[in-house]
């Protein structure tokens, strides 16, 4: 009988020690910023060869867009040179290949009061949605003339710097 009392006492002490240990432990919660791995910030070389492919035209006009996109500043800097074409409107559009797409911005419009220059240079700060579609390869350049809309077009391509 005395042996049972000792075992019962030891069992109670073990349960008390376990409960004190469980109550005394604090769960350490890691800060979300510490656990999130941030992807590296990249810079890309952007190019587009703009011609009659995909526009169903017989235009002799061509254009080349060269530029750079920086993920840190969200800035797309570009320069566009064209030949054998009289553009009325040049614009960035976003959408599936072969579609009309959604207008992003007009980079040149004849008659807007700005002098005609070749090459056309500019810079554009992108929204997160625009950046996502740009990096997915869904942006293209369209060059509209009085004859056809678009007369020539080309998809923007990227190469990591």
Q: Rounded to an integer, what's the Rg over CA atoms?
A: 31 Å
Number of strands: 9
Shape: rod-shaped
| SSE series | HHEEEEEEHEEE
> What topology, given as strand order, has the largest sheet?
6-3-2-1-9
- Give the fraction of residues assigned to helices: 10-25%
Low-confidence stretches: none
Beta-strand residue fraction: 35-45%
Largest sheet: 5 strands, antiparallel
Rounded mean pLDDT is 85
Q: Helix/strand/pairing class, anyone? A: alpha+beta
Number of helices: 3
User: How far apart lie the N and C ends?
Assistant: 83 Å
Describe this structure in words.
It is a single chain. This protein has 161 residues and is of the alpha+beta class. The chain has 3 helices and 9 strands. The protein has helices spanning 2-24, 32-35, 128-135, and strands spanning 43-50, 62-70, 75-83, 89-94, 102-109, 120-125, 139-144, 152-155, 157-160. The protein has a 5-stranded antiparallel beta sheet, with no helix packed on it. The protein has a 4-stranded antiparallel beta sheet with strand order 5-4-7-8. It is rod-shaped. The N and C termini lie far apart (83 Å). The mean pLDDT is 85.
């Amino acid at each position: 009988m005395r042996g049972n009392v000792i075992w019962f006492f030891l069992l109670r002490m073990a349960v008390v020690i376990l409960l004190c240990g469980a109550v005394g432990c604090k769960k350490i919660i890691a800060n979300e910023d510490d656990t999130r791995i941030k992807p590296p910030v990249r810079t890309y070389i952007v190019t587009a060869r703009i011609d009659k492919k995909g526009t169903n035209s017989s235009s002799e006009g061509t254009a080349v867009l060269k530029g750079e996109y920086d993920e840190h500043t969200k800035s797309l800097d570009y320069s566009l040179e064209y030949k054998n074409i009289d553009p009325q409107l040049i614009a960035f559009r976003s959408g599936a290949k072969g579609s009309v797409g959604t207008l992003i911005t007009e980079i040149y419009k004849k008659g807007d009061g700005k002098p005609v220059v070749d090459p056309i240079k500019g810079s554009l700060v992108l929204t997160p949605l625009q950046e996502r579609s740009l990096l997915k390869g869904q942006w293209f350049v369209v060059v509209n003339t009085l004859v056809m809309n678009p007369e020539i077009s080309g998809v923007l391509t990227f190469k990591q710097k």
